[in-house]
Specification:
The complex is a heterodimer of chains A (440) and B (433). Chain A contains 19 helices and 8 strands. Chain A has 440 residues and is α/β, with parallel strands linked by helices. With 433 residues, chain B is of the alpha/beta class. Chain B has 3 domains: 100 residues, no CATH class; 177 residues, P-loop containing nucleotide triphosphate hydrolases (Rossmann fold); 119 residues, Winged helix-like DNA-binding domain superfamily/Winged helix DNA-binding domain (Arc Repressor Mutant, subunit A), CATH 1.10.10.10. The chains are: A alpha/beta (440), B alpha/beta (433). The interface between A and B is large, with 71 and 69 residues. Bound molecules: adenosine-5'-triphosphate, adenosine-5'-diphosphate (ADP) and magnesium ion (2 copies). Chain B: Belongs to the ORC4 family.
Chain lengths: 440, 433
């Protein structure tokens, strides 16, 4: 990597620290130009999560010791904070302190101009806005103004926006100053192997770690290409991978054996840690005492909610009411009816559609009718049923609709998934599928 | 290095660096051009109007209307440059520059006006009954001391249309009102990219406007366009290294005559005629020049053009995981089947599951939450969007969504997708078979 105007040794160390991003670094540097030259007023860098946008831009700014402010728009909740950060970084605390209490863009630009006329930029100043999609939710004119800040303050300043959302989604209706677009491409499998292999464990060979990474990508690559996530998963599961080696059951060269050991484990990880169903800590602990808990946890996290016995039936009844057409209730729940004949009331086009469209609202009396029917005669109805309904609503397992309207009786919708209902049904020995119209 | 080169003051690398510096500054639009290209009549018209205020003390109002990057700000800048060359004007005329992006309401605007007229101290803590009173006071205060005549004030309102959104259009009403009465000589110059700007004005505001408009719509001819390219890329005659300058300028001339460059420029010209997008193209070409190749080459322009015309959505689609790509295809099928009606996650999942069960041998079954996570990533990328975000309590999987991609974009992405499994490709095409 060679670039006029920057010390060569620093460029070399940059290149070392940013594998697979040489082209991007070179292009970025040529866009920026030598420090005293003008750079384009605004540059929009986009690309998938963890393609190194923030990392590259930040490293370049920091290593080359350029004047810059790096602002994450998720942390920076108000324009005022942003203005403060910028003035502080470029002109010191006095400048930042002279912002009025609720500064407008007008105040910011005026102060910037005032300060920069005293100390004009000898090097391009850079304002970097990370996760820039958030600026759209702030003041409507913030983004268009920042895009042409160079013109507004007539000084050598460049605004760099970083985002994973494409520029088309930013452009206001009446247009604005168009930034230069610059894409950070996603890492392919080979890139990911190269980058992740750098984290190899000191007590094992780099080759072993590389083959571990290959196995990991074999499981996860079709689902997730996020480097940060993969790196986390790699670190988390490496001890398990090494277990056969530790115990002396396998040698480093027995890749197949090691694969057989780790593969199912990684599959399980996809359904748990990857989904944040269990925390990284829990996952590590589970790895330790795996022998005792043979059933894989995860996915089941919801099922750990303990409900009172009748609440379970209420919830099941609510689910049936939400997903069955009301006209089929007689067939399902009338005791005298005997065996259910499905053919009579099947309408072809209706089939399967209920579970696709989502739960439909139902009135209270329908819920109760189904409830008494499914609970059988095992319970005498009490007022506590109503308070149980209320608590299901407060747990957000049921949704209440139209409660503001005093004229209408309240309606409800069931707000849990089929898996959840099936899990609950099992605990009370009830076969819910038999009562679902969609699954006849 | 040869001894001949050593004798000159600048090395080749220094020359390149200096050339870059000059051209970058020009292409970053920080310098006014010597002369606006193809805007002679507009230039004369505006200069004439502003002279009447600046020299003869007549009030006036005018709108400069043209698309983005058409040169509105530049035109005004050039006119003011000439105007301020007149000695009596420079001493006498005051300028107030406002921008709809910055002065987002009339209170802020008034404060800014006061500041730019250097009247903060005069105003002090005075309280005014109305906006009009305040403005009148400011203009009165300008009649300093012995002079009975007020100093002319030029009010420049960039992004003029945004001021029309201020409450009651108070600022516009008052400024235009002053420009019609004999209170003080003022000119109100509005700059806007909205051709329908007059329809934004309230009746009482509109009736006070002179209805003078200067349009910057007449497109350049292609010859003018190419000439502009040549002149924008040329180095000035006073460049400290004449030999380098000559070589550079000759290479630019040659470049402009090149057939493939002409073709490229014509494509650019046909997609947008404005200078700003041209400058972006030229900027991207110029930055590729380095000591190792010290003149501008045809390949630099080609590469710049390739960068500019890159399709962002295609770039993002390229980086999706296979699972995410499958979901996009499922949504495309839903769009085809249901004529673009919105869909929910459950339906997408259903389509996907059907594919896994019936047709796929490379894609494995994924747990539903894993699929959901992929789906949510697409939402985050804004490729899929909720139809109505305010529906509140709908479960995530039943929230109605729309795919923000065209049919063609999906198919193209599929072609470019690295190592796309063939069964996935076939599935995407299957609806037409
Ligand atoms: N006719 C022209 N001749 C020479 N340069 C031009 C011409 N038109 C535009 N330019 C150049 O194009 C650039 C953009 O022009 P300018 O900033 O005036 O656009 P604008 O109309 O004010 O756009 P916006 O509506 O976004 O403010 C400037 O650098 C200007 O010098
Ligand atoms: N080429 C790379 N080499 C080493 N680490 C990288 C590389 N690209 C990204 N990373 C790491 O991945 C993580 C995510 O990168 P980041 O720059 O935050 O991504 P983005 O801003 O594109 O979402 C960072 O911790 C960074 O250290
Ligand atoms: Mg980032
Ligand atoms: Mg402008």
């Amino acid at each position: 990597m060679q670039c006029a105007g920057y010390p060569e040794d620093k460029l070399r160390s940059l290149a070392d620290r940013l594998p697979c991003r040489e082209t991007q670094v070179t292009t970025l540097l040529s866009l920026m130009g030598e420090p005293d030259q003008y750079s384009y007023p605004s540059i929009f860098i986009y690309g998938h999560r963890a393609t190194g946008k923030s990392h590259v831009v930040f490293s370049v700014m920091k290593d080359l010791e350029l004047p810059y402010t790096f602002v994450d728009c998720v942390e920076c909740v108000s324009p005022a904070l942003l203005f403060h950060r910028v003035l502080l970084a470029f002109f010191g605390p006095d400048a930042a302190a002279s912002l009025p209490r609720c500064p407008s863009l007008s105040d910011f630009v005026r102060l910037y101009k005032q300060m920069s006329s005293k100390t004009p930029a000898t090097q391009t100043r850079f304002i970097i806005l990370d996760r820039a999609e958030r600026t759209r939710d702030m003041d409507f004119s913030l983004l268009p103004a920042l895009l042409r800040l160079q013109e507004l303050v007539s000084d050598n300043v460049t605004v760099i926006l970083l985002s994973q959302v494409v520029w088309e989604k930013f452009r206001p209706n009446t247009g604005c100053f168009e930034p230069l677009l610059f894409h950070f491409p996603d890492y392919n499998k080979a890139d990911l192997v190269q980058i992740l292999s750098r984290d190899h464990h000191p007590s094992y060979t780099p080759e072993l770690y590389a083959s571990y990474i290959n196995i990991l990508l074999g499981v996860f690559f079709s689902v997730c290409r996020d480097l940060r996530e993969l790196r986390h998963l790699a670190a988390l599961n490496f001890p398990k991978f090494c277990e056969p080696l530790e115990k002396g059951e396998a040698k480093e060269s027995d890749i197949h054996k090691l694969w057989r050991n780790i593969e199912p484990h990684l599959q399980r990880a996809m359904q748990t840690v990857y989904l944040r169903e269990v925390s990284s800590m829990q996952w590590k602990e589970q790895q330790m005492d795996e022998k005792e808990t043979t059933t894989p946890r995860g996915l089941s996290a919801h099922a750990h909610i303990e409900l009172p016995y009748y609440s379970k039936f209420l919830l099941i009844a609510a689910y049936l009411a939400s997903f069955n057409p009301a006209r089929t209730d007689r067939r399902f729940f009338l005791k005298s009816h005997g065996k259910i004949k499905k053919t009579n009331f099947l309408k072809k086009h209706e089939k399967t559609s209920n579970h696709l469209l989502g739960p439909k609202p139902f009135p209270l009396d329908r819920l109760l009718a189904i409830f008494y029917s499914v609970v059988d005669s095992r319970v005498a109805p009490t007022a506590s049923i109503f308070s149980q309904i209320m608590s299901l609503v407060s747990l957000q397992l049921l949704t209440q609709i139209g409660h503001d309207d005093q004229l209408d009786a309240p309606k409800y919708k069931c707000a849990v998934s089929m898996d959840f209902i099936l899990a609950i049904s099992r605990t009370v020995n009830f076969d819910a599928v038999k009562y679902l119209y969609d699954f006849l | 290095m040869t001894s001949k080169r050593k004798s000159t003051a600048l090395t080749e690398a220094q020359c390149v660096s200096l050339a870059q510096k000059i051209l970058r500054e020009r292409l970053c639009q920080q310098r006014l051009p010597e002369q606006p290209v193809g805007l002679e009549s507009q230039y004369r018209h505006l200069l004439e109007l502003l002279k009447r205020t600046a020299v003869h003390g007549e009030s006036n109002s005018v709108l400069i209307v043209g698309p983005r990057g058409a040169g509105k700000t530049m035109l005004l800048g050039c006119v003011l440059r000439e105007l301020m060359n007149l000695k009596e004007v420079l001493k006498n005329v005051l300028q107030v520059e406002l921008n709809g992006l910055l002065q987002t309401d009339d209170k802020i605007a008034l404060k800014e006006i006061t500041r730019q007229l250097h009247l903060e101290n005069v105003v002090g803590d005075k309280v005014f009954g109305s906006f009009a009173e305040n403005l009148a006071f400011l203009l009165e205060a300008l009649k300093s001391g012995d002079k009975s005549r007020s100093r002319p004030v030029l009010f420049i309102l960039d992004e003029f249309d945004l001021f029309a959104h201020h409450k009651n259009q108070t600022l516009l009403y008052n400024l235009l009102d002053v420009s019609q009465s004999a209170q003080a000589p003022v000119a109100v110059v509005g700059l806007t990219c909205r051709l329908d700007v007059l329809e934004l004005l309230e009746k009482r505001v509109k009736s006070r406007f002179s209805h003078r408009q200067i349009h910057l719509l007449n497109p350049l001819s292609f010859t003018q366009y190419v000439e502009a390219v040549g002149s924008q890329l040329s180095l000035p005659q006073d460049f400290p290294h004449p030999k380098f300058c000559d070589e550079w300028n000759r290479s630019v001339t040659k470049l402009c005559e090149d057939k493939s460059v002409e073709e490229l420029l014509r494509r650019q010209f046909n997609s947008s005629k404005d200078f700003r997008s041209l400058y972006m193209l030229l900027f991207l070409a110029v930055i590729r020049v380095s000591p190792s190749h010290s003149t501008l080459r045809e390949s630099d322009l080609l590469e710049a053009s390739r960068l500019i015309s890159a399709d962002s959505k295609a770039n993002i689609l390229h980086g999706l995981s296979v699972l995410e790509l499958c979901l996009i295809i499922a949504m495309k099928h839903l769009n085809d089947t249901y004529d673009g009606e919105p869909f929910n996650f459950q339906m997408v999942h259903n389509e996907f599951t059907k594919f896994i069960q019936r047709k796929s041998h490379t894609i494995h079954k994924f747990e539903k939450p894993v699929v959901m996570k992929a789906f949510e990533h697409l939402v985050e990328l804004e490729m899929v969007r909720a139809v109505d975000s305010a529906t509140g309590k709908v479960q995530r999987e039943y929230q109605l969504m729309r795919l923000m991609l065209e049919h063609g974009q999906v198919m193209e992405a599929l072609q470019k997708y690295p190592q796309c499994p063939t069964d996935v490709k076939q599935w995407a095409l299957s609806a037409f078979a």
